[in-house]
Design brief:
This protein is an alpha/beta fold. The chain has 14 helices and 20 strands. Bound molecules: ligand BES, manganese (II) ion and zinc ion. Zinc ion (ZN) binds next to strand 10.
Length: 487
């Protein structure tokens, strides 16, 4: 587990900076450079401004220029462009990009300008998110910083740092899980991890093993997991404080590896399928974050864990399964396995009559075709979908509402069962959503497809590293915080 710590900076000016790097902001007006920082030493400010002028540095939001100043030769200054009028998410991106530039140093001090607690929180959060890198299997020099000092003159620094740390550490933990390959993270070790971490945060946990899956007739998990030596599992975790307002259920797709099964993926599409448990990782850490923040709202998380493999015991195309609610499904494509396991989670979750159920899944390649790699697709019943979209907006995470069209339902019709598991190729994200809709009955519901945005295949930017992004964890926490405030 990547361990990076946020501290309150002791110093009030450059003389007291104890790290080898400092993050400051700047903007340009015509040719005039203006440093913007919580540090005020006139000498330091002038030196930075002069250097930035000479370098003709760009002040585009979150672009980083590295410089040194004559008065402090051992100090690396990472000057980050502020663009014009940075909002909270810009500040998160700016802090993240600045801290990532400090990789290789032991510690950095973040001295970005801010005047409100919300701005400071965005900066602290972005700094810790931007510092993340997945280093479990490599030993090169550019290791992420271990210590981040947050420089501020506001009075609530400690509590803001505490809160930002909880949130960003949990996003980073999602990233670790998603980046970990399936030979080191299987259904058993994921369930064990969930048990340990959730209990440590004060949640109660129940793990359904294979015998219990049969007993409860959790047909989707059994069918998808049948081909793997690693048995499928369903993990239920609950955060239920005494003073709870509202009850939200979260369901996550936890496919430890997705070969496609007998509807085998081509070799170019099979790589990256270690990430197919991103939904389960996201909801696990959203519940843990709610517990760590002691949010006064009840949350139950359901992680549907299985490995989609090929063997003599694997599910075949054409097989028919019957869910515990009576719905029968003809599996015409074993690669549409996510919806099969989520159906079990949705049935179990809605049985407990939550106010709303939200599922998160790396569900369809069609999500990326429709929305690209950065926008998450959100479907569901109108009010809950809009609430999740609003939460994403507040969290600064990119998301877009998508329809569940009535006219596409017929494409899921089967000749021999109540439905097939795949329908029309066009609108594949939407037909996947329509399949799930059958399993939530009347419960208010949102379906979050993160196939593209959960993994950054290009270079790092802002607070987003290459590889796993941990996106939507903060959106869920934001949603739960809203629920905690409702009566
Ligand atoms: N795990 C994949 C979706 C996916 C694709 C996630 C690319 C991340 C990146 C999912 O199980 C899948 O295979 N979906 C199929 C559905 C199809 C068979 C209807 C797909 O998108 O091709
Ligand atoms: Mn698949
Ligand atoms: Zn999958």
């Amino acid at each position: 587990m990547t361990e990076i710590k946020l501290h309150k900076a002791a110093g009030i000016d450059t003389a007291e900076i104890t790290t080898a790097g400092v993050i400051v902001g700047f903007s340009k007006n015509d040719d005039a450079v203006k440093l913007a920082s919580s540090l005020t030493s006139p000498e330091f400010v002038t030196e930075c401004e002069n250097a930035l002028k000479t370098l003709r540095a760009s002040d585009t939001t979150a672009s980083v220029t590295t410089l040194t100043v004559p008065s402090q030769r051992d100090l690396l200054v990472f000057a980050v462009g502020l663009g014009t009028d940075p909002d909270l998410d810009d500040l998160r991106q700016i802090a993240g990009a600045g801290v990532r530039a400090g990789a290789g140093l032991d510690g950095v001090t973040v001295a970005l300008p801010h005047s409100t607690n919300a701005e400071l929180e965005a900066i602290a959060e972005g700094a810790l998110l931007g510092a993340y890198d997945f280093t479990r299997y490599r030993k090169d020099a550019d290791q992420p910083v271990k210590m981040i000092n947050i420089h501020s003159t506001l009075s609530d620094v400690e509590s803001i740092i505490e809160r930002s740390s909880i949130i960003a550490q949990n996003v980073n933990a999602v990233r670790d899980l998603v980046n970990t390959p399936a030979n080191d993270l299987n259904t058993e070790s994921f369930a064990q991890y969930a048990l340990t971490e959730a209990q440590a945060a004060g949640c109660s946990v129940h793990v359904y093993d294979l015998a219990q899956l049969y007993k409860e007739n959790l047909a989707g998990l059994i069918a998808v997991g049948k081909g793997s030596a690693n048995e499928p599992k369903l993990v239920r975790i609950e955060w239920n404080p005494g003073n709870a307002h509202g009850f939200t259920a979260l369901v996550g797709k936890g496919i430890m590896f997705d070969t496609g099964g007998y509807s085998l993926k081509p070799s170019t599409a099979i790589t990256e399928m270690k990430t197919d448990m991103g939904g389960a990782a996201t909801i696990l850490h959203a519940v843990i974050t709610a517990a760590r923040l002691e949010l006064p709202t009840k949350v139950v998380g359901w992680m549907c864990l299985a490995e989609n493999m090929i063997s003599g015991t694997a599910t075949r195309p054409d097989d028919v399964i019957t869910y515990r609610n009576g719905i029968s499904v003809e599996i015409n494509n074993t690669d549409a396995e996510g919806r099969l396991v989520l159906a079990d989670g949705l049935i179990m979750a809605t049985d407990e009559q939550p106010d709303a159920v939200i599922d998160v899944a790396t569900l369809t390649g069609a999500q990326m075709v429709a929305l690209g790699e950065r926008y998450t697709g959100i479907m569901g019943t109108d009010a809950t979908r809009e609430e999740v979209l609003a939460a994403a907006q507040n969290a600064g995470e990119l998301a877009w509402g998508m329809p569940l069209p009535e006219h596409l339902k017929s494409s899921l019709k089967s000749d021999i069962a109540d439905m097939k598991n795949t329908g029309s190729r066009y609108g594949g994200m939407l037909t996947a959503g329509l399949f799930l809709q059958r399993f939530v009955a009347d419960t208010p519901w949102a379906h979050i497809d993160i196939a593209g945005p959960s993994f950054n295949r290009e270079g790092a930017y802002g607070y987003t590293p290459k590889g796993a992004t941990g996106t939507m964890m903060r959106t869920l926490v934001n949603y739960l915080e809203e629920k905690a405030l409702e009566n």
